[in-house]
Amino acid sequence: MFVKISHLYAENFPQLTAPFRPIWGPKASILLVDDKLAAQLNLSPDEILAALQSDDVAEKTVAMLYAGHQFGQFNPRMGDGRAALLGEVSGQNGMMFDLHLKGSGATPYARGGDGKAGLGPVLREFLMARAMAALDVPTTGSLAVIETGEQIWRDVPQPGPVPGAILVRSAASHLRVGHVQYIATMGDDALLSRFIEYVLNRHNMRADAHENMALSLLQNVMERQAALIAKWMSIGFVHGVMNTDNMTLSGETIDYGPCAFLDEYNPASVFSSIDRRGRYAYGQQPAIGGWNLARLAEAMLSIIDDNVETAIEKAQSVLSGYTALYDAAWRDLFAQKIGLFEVHKDDGDLIKELLTLLAKHRVDFTQFFAELGPIFLGEKKRDADNFAAGHFGMDLAVWYEWKNAWQSRRDLESMDEIRILDVMRRANPLRIARNHHVEAAINAYIYKGDDGPFKALYAALSNPFEQREEWDIFDAPPQMNSPPFQSFCGT
Predict the structure, then answer these.
(1) Closest to 270 (Cα-Cα) out of 118, 435, 133
(2) Which InterPro entries does the entry link to (predicted)?
């Protein structure tokens, strides 16, 4: 008995969809399944493909229509060009999840593309989604990778045919800021109000957070996005393409195209091949989050208040809380990374001083924080001098000045060192999806037919806080003077 797939979004908002029948390819077969996610969604891995290919599901599959700001420029009509919403399923906890395809052919919104996906980008998103979930980051999930049995042409990073693939993903929903923006272009306030009510109910948001539903939605989305982006920053994650159509209303990370993780700490880090001006650099992400939220507010002004100026004032009143929300979330996460738990007024300055030091000396972000607790509070105390020299070279005076201030601040904590070390270990992963390891594993899979490195990396990234000798290789940063890493969206 296949899991029941409903079609609530498609039935409620037909004007925001286009019918679409997925193209599975000549020899569609399951290549990989995220067993944890399948269990969460009450799906049997053996039945996934047959369930998704059923005629009933295919006849009700839709491409979602939305707008979006792409690198600051508004595109009033975008939508799922190579993606499709199969429907919704009820998970183990009773929560509703979307089932979504990526790479299943050109939809009416494909804008000239073939709507298909190469195996490389699909493997990358499958890996990244699991890595982010294991790091406790709200994220869309990658349920399965499906081989299509055909070759498709791509010109980046190198021109040539590549194996075709489809990603099956899930999410609390795939509703985005761009959905609200598109409805605003329609000038249909009744539809906009109904859509907002749907989002509030779908995600169990506080509908009474403000005087009307639009402000309540803005407040809820703002809180979730502030927490999400602070989490990205705490693990060195760079999304790479924070367009408004890639900002979910649920507060989940979506679209692992040109994303990457920091090796050395550098706020100006950009990995995406198409972000030539650094709009979505690591250090820009909090500000872009606020900018995107302002675009959400603009799209809802007509139902915030009949008077435009009054509506703007009310929206700005809500948005004025974003910086404080983000700063508090950021401070709490980074404070845990250095073993501080009782909030003191100067903690933010202490953290910023450390990050300035890391940037100056091009210190590896993940490695530094993973070593900090064991070196100064744990079993590796004898290695403190080697740790300092290895990260900061000859500039030890500045490091020791910060370390002494950190020690003095830690002395004010009521928690003992054993408990502090335990929390630090849970705040600082041993490994992240390092770009060179991800690329090597994917290339071995595609070009050598060797799935061993990919499966080993997948297992290691599924357990980022666990020490195992066979996973040590994935903890290592790239060699010094390695060429800059570039990521591509894979379309």
Answers:
(1) 435
(2) SelO (IPR003846)
